[in-house]
Amino acid sequence: MNIELSKALAAQLRPATHVPADARYVFDAFGSLVVAGQILNCKDLNEAMATTSGSESWFSEESDFFRFDANGELHSIALKVPGRNATLPLTSFTQQDGFFSLHLTGKQNFIVEPQSCRFFDAAHRNLYAFSPDRMSPDTLAYRLTPSLSILINHACLLSGWVLHHPLENLASHFDEPRDVVTPDAETYATFFKFLDLFSDNQCDDLDQDIEAVTRNLIAGIDQEDLLKVKGSLRQSILRAELKKLFDHYLQDQLFSK
C-alpha cells in the first residue's frame, strides 16, 4: 500500500519483518518530540541524519523526520509534538493488526509538514497529533512500534499519529531509560495540566504574552502536584522544565524589581 507522506511523494507501507524498539516521548517545554527507530541508539538527531536520507527541515520550512537507510528501509522517526490543543475530530480509529514499516524507493530529501494540533487524552493514555483537515471517518491506525501508530485517511494521506502510553515512554533524551514506576491517573492529570496551561491556545488568549502564560503555569502546578507524579524520572523532568521556563521568562523580572 502506498501512502502519501508529503506532496507528490509516496512511501510503501507494508508489514514489518520484526517488532521494532519502542518509541520515546522526549519532553521539552520548548518543543517535544516523539522518536522511534535506530535514532534511539544515537547521541542526537544529527548523528541519525548523517547516514540516512529522507525528510528534513529546510530553511524556514519545518518538517517531521522520516529517515531511510541506503536500502530504503525506515531507519528513524522524529515527530514534532504540536503546541496547539484541539479536540480530536474522531472518537475512535480502526487499529490494523500487526506491525508495519515504511519503504522509500530512491534516495531523496523532502519535507513532511508537522501535524498542527495535539490532544493529550489522559483518560485513555494516548497522545494524538493530527491535522483536522486531513481526518476522515474511515481513518486507519497502523502500528510502527508497540506504542506508536500513524494515522492514514481514506485518500492514503498521513493525517496524524498517536503515541500510546506517552508517560510510560517519557524521557528527556533519545537514549535515556524510561521510568520503572507505572504512572497513575494523578500523574497523567498533572501532565495534562502542563500541556493545557502552556500551549498556543493560552498564548492566543493572553495576546501572545508568553511571560503571563508562564506565570499561570508556575502558579497552576504547585509542589503538591509535583509530589503526586509517580516516578522519580518523571518528577525530575517536570521540575526541570518548569525551572527552565521560569529562568527563561521570569527570572529577569524577579531581579529587576
Outline the secondary-structure elements.
Layout: E1 2-6, E2 9-15, E3 24-26, E4 33-37, H1 45-50, E5 53-54, E6 65-68, E7 74-80, E8 94-95, E9 100-103, E10 117-121, E11 126-130, E12 140-143, E13 148-152, E14 158-164, E15 170-171, H2 185-197, H3 200-205, H4 210-220, H5 223-228, H6 232-249, H7 251-256
Parallel strand pairs: 3-15, 8-12
Antiparallel strand pairs: 1-2, 2-9, 3-4, 4-7, 5-6, 6-7, 10-11, 11-14, 12-13, 13-14
Could you characterize the architecture of this molecule?
By secondary structure, this protein is of the alpha+beta class. 26% of the residues lie in helices and 26% in strands. The chain is built from seven helices and 15 strands. A six-stranded mixed beta sheet has the order 5-6-7-4-3-15. A six-stranded mixed beta sheet has the order 8-12-13-14-11-10, with no helix packed on it. Strands 1-2-9 form a three-stranded antiparallel beta sheet, with no helix packed on it. It is globular. The mean pLDDT is 90.
